[in-house]
Amino acid sequence: MTEPQEVPRRTGLLLAAVCLCQVMVVLDVSVVNVALPSIAKDLSFSPGSLSWVVNAYTLLFGGLLLLGGRFGDLIGHRRALFLGLGVFGVVSVLGGLAQDPGQLIAARAAQGLASAVLAPLSLTIIMVTFPEGKERSRAIGIWAMVAASGSALGVLLGGVLTEWLSWRWVMWVNAPIVLLALALGWTSIHDTRTARPSRLDVPGAVLVTLALTSLVNGAIRAGEDGWGSAWALGSFGLAALSGAVFIWWELRVPEPLIRLGVFQSRPVWVANLISAFIGASAVAGFYFASLVLQDVLGYSPLQAGAAFLPFCAGTVLGAMLSGRLSARFGLRSVMTVGLLCSAIGMGLFGQMHLDATFLGTFLLPSIIASVGVGLSMVANTSLGTTGAQQHEAGLVSGLINASRQCGGSLALAALATVALSATRASSAGDPLEALIQGYDRAFQVTAALTLVAAVLAFLYVPRPDAVQEPVAEQAVS
Question: pLDDT tens, 332-383?
């Protein structure tokens, strides 16, 4: 097992570099949301296929995250991080040049592949560079706060770029971010490794990605063709088969993608389960809220992006408070309250109507839900990394990210189907009113999922005296 190296002098630059990688990765999940109507019109996307602009990214991202972390262990964290940044920058430029849906979806998938390397490495580099204690606690807390606020900032940035320039700039904006991260990392990040694997579990990564992709595709096809359609049933069957083979393979391969025994740790399995629900709430919430602002309230992309400013502020506030509140009241209390706030906010979003206004209908749910997201996401990251063994830093950090992204992908596909079904079943004479009813149903189901997560947090997150000191308690001085 490799112990953390002596903390380098340029810790500020190192932390800025890895946080910049993380904010770019998280931002790219949501930055396209406000641009979706413009993308659909310009590239002639169908309503059912439009969600693939988001899911092509999150599926490859979530499915290959664990392989990305192991890849860094194999070739060195510094080299892998720079390779991931280079690929991300190139495919972002190509995505901005897309002329049809297939080209954009392919570029988004390639972004997801690069993100699967960047996201786990950004946290792993912190864990192997900073010695356990106050320095690492503060660094991980800042990293988690960046992750919590990145999605909200992405929606705002997407609105500004789409309105003032073009939707293509939501792809091209990554190029300068990549260059800045490379410059900062080149002078501050040294080559580090945890336990070095002799080979990568590529079959395991392919199997888990196939299972997730098939599951999402089944949910999307069910919305378009019906739950009993051959395509939907075939996709669900393939998902079940590849998932079963994945578990069988992981139990037998010498160096598995996921050492399944890691889930014997209560903080690990609880944090990853709740992380999937947090991802579902965040991704689905941003997606449908962006559509509501433009389709129902008639906002331009810039106005829609600006409407997310309170959400940005609330997320940052919740993230800043999370560490201090966790140190005082414990992770269980903070996560439960945060998830309850998110559930209430999503439930209020589900009360949209034809006469909805920003101040009367959208603002209050934004504030309540965003503070809840910030509180729960940072506390949950702290729970999932508490007491992690050094040689499993890449695995644990990859699992937290993978759970959140996969939960978001699966929920988005399912909720898009729920919204489309509710719209089709509506008896409203006004097509816009039927559309609103579909969005309301999606928000209501999202609220129910988040409420389930709150119950899980209350029942299963260990008491404050049963876990080590929360890693984020020093996040904000």
Answer: 888 899 999 999 999 998 887 777 777 878 888 888 988 898 888 878 877 7
The residue among 476, 242, 280 whose CA lies nearest residue 378 is: 476
Residues whose CB is less than 8 angstroms from the CB of residue 136 and which lie 6 or more positions away in sequence, other chains included: 4, 126, 127, 130, 471
Q: How many structural domains comprise the chain?
A: 2
Among 220, 238, 256, which residue terminates a domain? Answer: 256
Residue 94 placed within a domain: yes
Please check the confidence at residue 104 and state whether its pLDDT lies above 70.
yes
Return d(Cα 258, Cα 170) in angstroms, integer.
33
Q: 270 and 124 in one domain?
A: yes
Overall average pLDDT of the 23-50 stretch = 78
Contacts 24+ apart (CB under 8 A), 231-239: 238/210, 238/211, 238/214, 239/210, 239/211, 239/212, 239/214, 239/215
Give the least confident one: 2-6, 251-255, 424-428: 2-6
In which domain, by residue range, is 74 found? 11-190+257-466
Provide the residue type at 456 as one letter.
L
Whether residue 298 sits in one domain with residue 213: no
pLDDT computed for residue 395 by the predictor: 66
Residues 380 and 459 in one domain: yes
Per residue, the 3-state secondary structure of the chain, as one string, reads CCCCCCCCCCHHHHHHHHHHHHHHHHHHHHCCCCCHHHHHHHHCCCCCCCCHHHHHHHHHHHHHHHHHHHHHHHHCHHHHHHHHHHHHHHHHHHHHCCCCHHHHHHHHHHHHHHHHHHHHHHHHHHHHHCCCCHHHHHHHHHHHHHHHHHHHHHHHHHHHHHHHCCCCHHHHCHHHHHHHHHHHHHHHCCCCCCCCCCCCCHHHHHHHHHHHHHHHHHHHHHHHHCCCCHHHHHHHHHHHHHHHHHHHHHCCCCCCCCCHHHHHCHHHHHHHHHHHHHHHHHHHHHHHHHHHHHHHCCCCHHHHHHHCHHHHHHHHHHHHHHHHHHHHHCHHHHHHHHHHHHHHHHHHHCCCCCCCCHHHHHHHHHHHHHHHHHHHHHHHHHHHHCCCCHHHHHHHHHHHHHHHHHHHHHHHHHHHHHHHHHHHHCCCCCHHHHHHHHHHHHHHHHHHHHHHHHHHHHHHCCCHHHCCCCCCCCCCC
